Amino acid sequence: MLNSVHDLGVSGGKKIHFRAHVKTHKTAQGTFKQLGFNLPASKITSNSILISTIREAHGLLDYQESIGKEYIKDICYSLPGCVLPILEQLSILTRRVENVRIFVDNVEHLDNLVRFGKPASRQRWSVFIKVDMGTQRAGLTTDSVEFSELLQKTQSPEVLEVVQVYGFYAHAGHSYASGSMEDAHKYLLDEIKAVNDAAQLLGKHAPSLDISKLVLSVGATPTSNSLRLAEEPVLTNFIKTNLKGILEIHCGNYCVYDLQQLSTGCIRDHEISGFVLATIVSSYKTRNEILADTGVMSLTREVSRFPGYGVCVKLEDILYKEPFSHYWYVARISQEHGILKPYGNSNSGVGDVKIGSKMAVLPQHACIAMGQFPYYFVVDSQGIVTDLWTPYQKW
Ligand SMILES: Cc1ncc(COP(=O)(O)O)c(C=O)c1O
């Protein structure tokens, strides 16, 4: 991903930033890899991350302090949470790291920031305005009245006293519905156009503002993956001729992947790096079904175009085979159990599966499945466990 961002910068003739979302694995070791540290093949490094909980930030900062590193220098909290209890925690965070960015998508957020005053760092709050470009989750559409009101308010003297607009942020969550790299690329162009329009609108409200300094942050795993499309003239031309600010690409799931990403058509199955190790505990000849210890508590109820709650592959396939053979899938789940049925026309039979053996289950949604585990085993290309990573989970 870092190399795709670098290469886009070269073809577009502008430096492009990268910000890693750490929500999928929530570990220090994984985050440092996402940022390109100690990765010889990476053409660039980054110091910027997104967090989904404030606990992630403290865990990561504690860890990097303990090893004497300053890999992470810029942390953005990815929920527009400008309400007092959260602002208090974000304010404390500003004392621990060079830059903290926060999201705003409501005029009340600005009122709350004015009421709160500057954070503990005594710098102004550095704010990304969250743009909704079709996901209808957080954020405002650039053509809405609320958006104009919000932009206008950022320029009022009392707000300018405590708030600095750092840029605009869009996340095409709905790009998960893509069916190909080309589809995902259209969403990426939409993301970029949305934040670019937003910057121009702010320029109208604040003619003396240098909008070329605004950071325009976009991305989701499918849209960021579409940077791998070779020969993409529309995007590079846009960057060369129309881009008003500094482009930043952000994404998170790409460092693990899962069946939902496979469903987008942007990746191949052997690129999925995270799997749940299932133990086969029983089997039923008459109904040709297997019982495994993978239920809702490990696989969750996430779904995609792939059937069930996880697709099973042989452990050795994870290491050596490309593409994987899908033998079984987790068709039904209870709290702790999963019932496995043969996948498609795989002809799998219970006679081939030993009770007590292990299978790799590719989860539907890695970010949610990984949240169920207190640690992850890291294996090398020979299948040897080389490390154990502990996530900074919950709140
Ligand atoms: C606000 C925000 N930004 C970025 C991301 C990263 O998206 P992805 O995991 O698809 O890369 C997410 C994921 O949910 C998100 O909510």
Structural account:
It is an enzyme of class 4 (lyase). With about 400 residues, the chain is an alpha/beta fold. The chain folds into two domains: about 250 residues, Alanine racemase (TIM Barrel, Alpha-Beta Barrel); about 130 residues, Lyase, Ornithine Decarboxylase, Chain A, domain 1 (Beta Barrel). It has 14 helices and 16 strands. The strands form three sheets. The protein has an eight-stranded parallel barrel, surrounded by four helices. β9 and β10 form a beta hairpin. The model has no long low-confidence stretch (mean pLDDT about 95). The structure holds pyridoxal-5'-phosphate. Pyridoxal-5'-phosphate binds next to β8.
CATH superfamily of the largest domain: Alanine racemase
Q: What's the architecture of the largest domain, going by CATH?
A: Alpha-Beta Barrel
| H/E element sequence | HEHEHEHEHEHHEHEHHEHEEHEHEEEHEE
- In the CATH scheme, the class of the largest domain would be Alpha Beta
Radius of gyration: 23 Å
Please state roughly what percent of the residues sit in beta strands, choosing from under 5%, 5-15%, 15-25%, 25-35%, 35-45% or over 45%: 15-25%
Structural class: alpha/beta
Largest sheet: spatial strand order: 1-2-3-4-5-6-7-8
Q: Could you say how many structural domains there are in total? A: 2
Quick recap of the structure?
By secondary structure, this protein is of the alpha/beta class. The protein is 32% helix and 22% strand. It has two domains: 254 residues, TIM Barrel; 128 residues, Lyase, Ornithine Decarboxylase, Chain A, domain 1.
